Amino acid sequence: MTSSSAQPAPSTGVAHPPYPAALAVSSPSWHSRLAHDNRVPLMYPETYIGLLGANDIVLSDLGVSRLHAVVRWTADGYTIQDLGSRQGTFVQGQRVTAPTPLAPGAHIRIGVADLLFQAVQVNASASAQDGVGAEADPAPAWTPDGQQGRGTGEAPRVAEMPAQAVERIAARARGGPGVGAWLATQQDKRYWRVFLIGLAAYLVSLSLLSLGGSPNPHLIPLVMLLASAVVPVTFVVFCWDVGAFADMSTTTLTLAFLGGGVLGIALTVLLDALVGSLGAAPLIIGAVEETGKGLAMLLFLRDRRLRSELDGLIIGAAVGMGFAMIETAGYGLEAFTQGAVQLVANNAGSTISLGDVYQQGVNAMVQELNLRMTLALFGHGVWTAIVGATIWRGRDRPDGRMTDLALAWGIAVLLHALYDTFAAATTSLLPPIVVGVAGLLILRFYIQEAVERAKFGADAPPPPPLARALRNYLTHLSQHIAPRAAASATAFAAAAPGYYAGAEQAAARAFATFSAQAPPHDTTTHPIPGDVSGSVPGDVSGSAPGSVPSDGAPPDGAPPPVHSTDEHEPHAS
What we know:
The protein is an alpha+beta fold and 573 residues long. 46% of the residues lie in helices and 10% in strands. A hairpin with a 2-residue loop joins β11 and β12.
């Protein structure tokens, strides 16, 4: 997802993994295209964990942030860092923010998910089918009580993986996500079901509208409602499915989509009344509507929970889609009225049945609604998202925020004006679609920049001036994007003699130092499941392996049974 204009993701400067390692994941719902036998090998210099579909490990839990945490290679081993999440990242029961060393056997808690960091032994003699997915190996790889699976009651520090599986996963990692893998993750999504159901309801309502030979006026509002809502509602559900609404409350989302849309329409009507004398040129209309929607977004600047450029982009898109839904219904009503009036005017002095008037109005309305539905993806949601992302982007760039905002607003107005001009001047859909694709390409810049900056967490630098960043992005748009750096199967399997013991001891010492300086964790706000008997590397209790604290309570650490499968069996989201 990198681009030449976005801030590069943080680099560890380490060319190869320090030793083979993986994360065993236990969560009610998660997926990863690199998963094998409930584990995700750490093939990338940075392995990202979060709710957003772009993560390497996607946790479908509303308590998880979009980009929640990252595990990195270092010269001394592996570290984990929280990326400014709301609910926090916990290692051995301690909340962590700065890069924190991981020792094999360390327990990580993110939301309701439990992850176990393990060293990996690559077994050249094992079959690639050993333990692939739930069908081949229904027993969990490890359990907290030792009563099931292959565990012994202690979270295993080392896991075996077949060499053939490592080669297959390395090929996936180095080749990037394929279409087949992406389609597999979409099977359980709701957005395409919502779209198909809404489209079917619209077509059925159209059929019923003229079932008796004459349009039923009682069904006209239903047809307009369905046509105006199908695409905007599908967009909202899609954002929900991919985790874009993480860290946003349902109230905020509802206010942005419905309240922001209504307020944007009201402000646009008010502005139109103030500047109506300037005419109805596409540039004037674009300026008025983009200003109205922009003012509606300012309502959400007061919410300090909405902090990032990605927050602004999503709020803008939601406001724009809510605006589009109401506007489309208005255009449908206008087309119906104009069609009916035109029929009466063209047949002045002749007798016209009320059914004919209704039919002419319905024909004009359906034609307008179909056009608006087809082009809805390219319109208000895109333009307002561009402005919204720039408003929130300016929070990290106070010196040039007004210059950047003026540029983004001008781009949105220009796209809006060109779109309206082509849509009105030609019956072909191609020109407005071309303008829409141009808007999507600019929106793609904002998405890439926002995601790349989020990978820095609290260490993200201020963004560059918008004009320079956009120029760099557009200049290099046609260039091939280099595949993401990943370890080969050979590099992943390679390890120096004694790597395991040295890494374990170094990480345990470093984590003990960190834990001694960190405040105690309040388990009433973030409960950690009871550990298995025996402490794991990095436990700061001072207990010897296999011992129990003097108060008789089991130490924190071990997750519940693993229920995940590999990428061929995606989880419900």
